[in-house]
């Protein structure tokens, strides 16, 4: 091991998942959760990365915990790091696009987990910067 | 502000830059630095994200500090988070592809900053997982 003169102070790292749910070839919608803890509201499923796990492992764990779905990762969709995006403290979100089949079931930090058709996303209830993330996802990223 | 029952423990967040340097339309190579601090060796320029800055701001700041170049971001190339990738502690790297013109000059954590043609990348001297990152960059990502 190397010794190191300091421990850096950096933002926290989290993962969020844009889970596209399919029934065979049919796209059903994406999964959103209703949060059990503050900030209350609707959100993409996600959570903090633990020390000792990769972001891909954290994503799989959090999606399973909050939605009971086993997801396949398509790609890193984006990294969201505006210091004001999380009202609690500075959190960097590594946001993944992923796919799954089956019916989500909320648990852990998710009171409810449910598939939303893209036309019925409850934009006004989304917390953090998840409306920006989903706008970027649906309409393309803009600076 | 929200109150929150705990402070999460997550890996540290850093940024690294794959800087492609151009002289007008001519691609000259990418920038690597020789590190001043442990782990000693050759690396992509990069550093830790500070609380209160976005990853894009951190990237611009670190590239300027270590290479004196003003870079334009092309995209997030990848997120590297293997717990063993940094011998000091668990660090998640948000790795950007970016472009710049001009001559790099090492400073801060970089003893030297220099343009390397792709054929002269000193693979055996690269620290962290930067040989993996550059292999992914040159040959495509594989699982």
UniProtKB/TrEMBL annotation, chains A, B:
<dbReference type="InterPro" id="IPR020084">
    <property type="entry name" value="NUDIX_hydrolase_CS"/>
</dbReference>
<feature type="domain" description="Nudix hydrolase">
    <location>
        <begin position="11"/>
        <end position="142"/>
    </location>
</feature>
<comment type="similarity">
    <text>Belongs to the Nudix hydrolase family.</text>
</comment>
<protein>
    <submittedName>
        <fullName>8-oxo-dGTP diphosphatase</fullName>
    </submittedName>
</protein>
<dbReference type="GO" id="GO:0016787">
    <property type="term" value="F:hydrolase activity"/>
</dbReference>
<keyword id="KW-0378">Hydrolase</keyword>
<dbReference type="InterPro" id="IPR020476">
    <property type="entry name" value="Nudix_hydrolase"/>
</dbReference>
<dbReference type="InterPro" id="IPR015797">
    <property type="entry name" value="NUDIX_hydrolase-like_dom_sf"/>
</dbReference>
<dbReference type="InterPro" id="IPR000086">
    <property type="entry name" value="NUDIX_hydrolase_dom"/>
</dbReference>
<dbReference type="Pfam" id="PF00293">
    <property type="entry name" value="NUDIX"/>
</dbReference>
